[in-house]
Write a structure and sequence with these properties.
Elements (H helix, E strand, L loop, with lengths): L7 H6 L1 H10 L7 H6 L2 H16 L6 H4 L7 H58 L9 H12 L7 H13 L5 E3 L22 E4 L18 E5 L20 E3 L20 E3 L20 E3 L20 E3 L20 E3 L20 E3 L21 E3 L7 H11 L8 E3 L12 H4 L3 H4 L7
Helix pairs in contact: 2-6, 4-6, 7-8
Length: about 450
């Protein structure tokens, strides 16, 4: 098939259909007159493809390109575009089919699991009504407490399903995970301060219920490893939470906490603490005693100043203080020598301290959406080369921005990768260039914080 036989209108409306036969053709004439006859959009894509490969040759892609080497330069560009179009169509079709099959399979598995659990819950409900537990059952006393608790069910509480999950946890002595989330519970049974709960390792999840306070029995779980209680009901925490000496992970995100008890500073083994989307404005003075803490998430609170106690957490690797009202950072932030991710987006920061350039293990620094940020930002240039700095959506002055871009564009630049603000961004639209890429290759990968 000769390229000269391609109609211009057809190429404009459906370029893929006429490019694919070119990939199978051997050799055909391709002159400048033929290229001029193609649509402007298609010619731009050919120019981009040929110039990009000339500027940034890809050795891994050589096997796909060398078959066109005997052709003239314009014809090589056309056939390379045809090759990309062919690969893109096949990859997209396969990706869509895989995603569809995976989604259907997960949906069927979820429905089957829900059906089995509902059948088991119905059977357990009948068992509770008959009270036909064996007296020889080691958990007979606990099951009796469960029956009384289920009998006091309030509206929109699914205590039957909660009792069923607790019973399964008691039966399987090797099970460590107890999930009681999304059941609308307003209270818990008086079981957690009794055996075998106080002597078994437990990972407890109570998210999306209606608990306004942490039940006192939870603080008696001496071997509790992780506690997750996310939702909108929790208003306060008891000081007895400091008795959970084996606790390693604590999540209270999405509640209405205004303060933290001093007892939380006694959790010496804690390495994960998530308190996002609460109403906190300060941290306890003793929070610096959590020397094993590696991840601290305080986004979506009401902090107006950076808590200085955080600077003493020598093991901290991940810190998220986005969506607050911070204006300044302390010079002591340079003490966090193990810090890898520092997210400070959506604040009111004005200046960046010089000590931030001393964080040699930092891999991501998020400063986007700080509209009050002022320059100069050249203090960020000494950060490690594998670090990414995001300063998008900031109102930096033209002088500060040009100085930073000038240093960034130097050939001998060895600093971090920087995402600069976009001035007058064009409206989002699907371009021809993007349509030729595989969805798998066009995904933007990066830290989702």
């Amino acid at each position: 098939m000769s390229l000269t036989s391609l109609p211009n209108a057809a190429t404009e409306s459906a370029p893929y259909q006429h490019l694919l036969p070119l990939h199978e053709a051997n050799a055909s004439g391709c002159d400048q007159e033929t290229l001029d006859g193609l649509s402007e959009k298609f010619r731009k894509q050919i120019f981009f493809d040929s110039s990009k490969r000339a500027r940034e040759p890809d050795e891994a892609d050589y096997e796909k390109r060398h078959v066109f080497d005997h052709l003239s330069e314009p014809q090589q560009a056309v056939k390379r575009v045809a090759f990309v179009a062919s690969s893109s169509l096949k990859t997209r079709a396969k990706d869509r089919e895989d995603v569809r099959e995976d989604r259907n399979r997960k949906e069927q598995d979820r429905k089957e699991q829900d059906r089995k659990e509902q059948d088991a819950v119905d059977s357990f409900s009948a068992l509770l009504r008959q009270m036909s537990f064996s007296l020889s059952d080691p958990n007979y006393r606990l099951l009796t407490i469960l029956k009384d608790w289920v009998g006091q069910t309030k509206s929109r509480e699914n205590r039957i399903k909660a009792a069923y999950r607790i019973r399964n946890f008691l039966k399987n002595v090797k099970e460590e995970y107890l999930v009681l989330s999304c059941l609308g519970l307003q209270s818990l049974p008086d079981l957690f301060d009794k055996e075998p709960f106080i002597s078994r390792p437990i990972h407890l999840t109570l998210s999306n219920n209606k608990l306004e306070s942490l039940p006192s029995g939870i603080c008696q779980l001496q071997y509790l490893k992780s506690l997750t209680l996310s939702g909108k009901g929790l208003k306060s925490l008891p000081n007895e939470i400091g008795q959970l000496r084996c606790l390693k992970s604590l999540t209270f995100s999405g509640n209405g906490l205004k303060s933290l008890p001093d007892g939380i500073c006694q959790l010496q083994l804690l390495n994960w603490l998530s308190l996002s989307n609460n109403k906190l404005e300060s941290l306890p003075n003793g929070i610096s005693r959590l020397q094993n803490l590696k991840s601290l998430i305080l986004s979506g609170n009401g902090f107006t100043s950076f808590p200085n106690e955080i600077c003493e957490l020598q093991s901290l690797e991940f810190l998220n203080l986005s969506d607050n009202r911070l204006e300044l950072l302390p010079d002591g932030i340079c003490w966090l020598q193990q810090l890898k991710v520092l997210q400070l987006a959506h604040n009111s920061l004005r200046l960046i301290p010089l000590g931030i350039s001393q964080l040699r293990k930092l891999t991501f620094l998020g400063l986007s959406d700080n509209f009050t940020l002022e320059g100069p930002l050249n203090i960020l240039l000494p950060l490690p080369r594998d670090c990414t700095v995001d300063i998008r959506c900031t109102n930096l002055s033209k002088d500060a921005l040009s100085d930073l871009q000038g240093a960034y564009n130097r050939q001998d630049y060895q600093g971090p990768r920087i995402f600069f603000p976009v001035t007058n961004p064009p409206p989002p639209k699907k371009t021809f260039r993007r349509s030729l890429q595989s969805p798998r290759l066009s995904r933007i990968r990066g830290p989702f914080l």
